[in-house]
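Contributing new records

If you add data, match the layout below exactly. Sequence lines come first and carry their own label; structure lines follow with theirs. Keep one chain per record. Anything else will be rejected by the validation script.
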Amino acid sequence: MSESESENPAGALRAAVRERRMPGPRTRRALLQSDDPTLARQAGRILKNLTVDGDRPREVEVAVLATCTIGPFEPLLRAQLVGAGLLPTVRAADYGTFDMSLATGSFTRDGDPGLVPVLLDAGYFLPGDWSAAEPDVLEKHVEGRLEEFRTLLAGALQHTAATVVVHTVPLPAQVRHGIISVRARSQVVRAWYQLNAALLALGEEHAQVVAVDLVGELAETPVQAGDVRLYRYGDLPYGDDALLLLARLVRRVAQARAGLSRKVLALDLDNTLWGGVLGEVGAQGVQLGGLYPGNCYTELQRTVARLREQGVILVLASKNDQDQVDRVLAEHPDVVLRPDTFSVRMVDWSAKAGNLRRAAESLSLSTESFVFMDDSDFERAQVGDELPEVAVVSAAGDPAYLVDSLLRDGWFDVVALTDTDRKRPELYRNRALRGDFSSGFDSSEDFLKALDLGVEVAPATEYTISRISQLAARTNQFNLTGIRYDEAATRRMSEDDGHLVLSVSVTDRFGDEGIVGALWVERTPDVWRVLNLVLSCRVLSRGVERAAVGWLAGEAAKAGARTVEGHFRRSDRNGVAADFWTGAGFAPAASAEETAAADAQVFTLDAATAAGIAPEWIALNERNGSPHE
């Protein structure tokens, strides 16, 4: 954002709408990080008319269902979704149609949406009139309303592929304080906690449902949940601040669902992972453990370690003497993040923006995957200017707030954690080892042969569908058609005899890479058609994609199909895959003129020629059974 844009974000948004482009990354980040609901409402109204020419960002159709008046929730949510890099269409169901919309599974007049936030209020579960002297009756009524909602929701999910977001509901103070018996009050509050526990459990009962904890957010944030006068006047139970909190929670779900979450956390050391400047106070003088402020830095390190356990890749980005840093990380008794927890360590006196670029290159990831945390205003500004796509987190100020600063925006959220997520830090650390290993060979082919590469292609299972759909959402470079099948669509295709969903796993001498690719295939007796093929960038240039297609073609031939058909649809990010099909021996199915006019290029291969596709340095590891059996 230019200086004028930072001073006038509304002007920057109007310019983006006028020029038919997405707002820049700084402007979008400002939308996510602002706590001002008035600014967010204004931004959401400006963005209502946003259209984008040229390469379009991820689009999301949103239908808001509500048991009450939604107030400014629609513009607040739109501002958050654009802030996450999504191009949303947000529509709200008519007031008073909540039960009918769920009963019919019809959320909009314009087809099935991708995301359905459900705005719930306490009045939906409470009776209009109740007796404070009969808490048992009140409890049974709440249980009955919950069961009605659960039944309606289960029925609606039979008619939609949308992700439905539900949230916990605060109990109004008027209910709590209206019961003068301390024991009866505890009983009603307990029943309400059970209601919220049941709402959270809906996310475990249904793969399409995600539950978020609005009550927890309200407890941690100094805002008023609602205004009683507005509730009585217009059935608006939540104030603007509470609705902004809910919009953030829904945005985090949408962001994770679209694969826009970050993978890498780059961290400074001095006054970030420990207190003090190492070069000034020495190894024994840094603040870690014990009382304040050392305990704040220890808690940040513990939090970072937990993120790593869940798949976040750690990069060290510090201006320091490397020998001193290595000694502290290895020997200091209160250090949690030892040297081997970092996949890349950039400890020198170079500019941090350049070091982040080099770290991204060594990991074969885009800097768009990075979050950078530093206490220095100068370092954050320099990275923000040169790499605006990097999410910058401040470690300045009171160290008691370090953990909150890192976690509040949900940069690393995923819909569900997979085994590959848990293994990711070690996988990327092994990538650096492979880079060192490759320096001793005369040719890339000699290196690939020495890697002892093994590839396994297997039909999707209950245990791999989440990882496969995650790859569809996150993969940009080697994504042949850009079609991002979500978990529900992937599951349906895997269970349909006319389709085939495949995972691609890789091993080499350094270990198991896990599931790194996936194929979605439509199959008929004569033609097996690859609707999309995605492959993680960390295994590009090894021939894995050719081995996978060679395996598929062989299976097609065994099943009696004559032709394998591949598609390619160009995007602004997948140029690296443009020549894949011809490189694998496929021939264009149309002339250059016809291809230029078509939405996607089509390539075909005689299935009988499959034997020559897979590279000789890759061993195809067979699993018992074939997809055509």
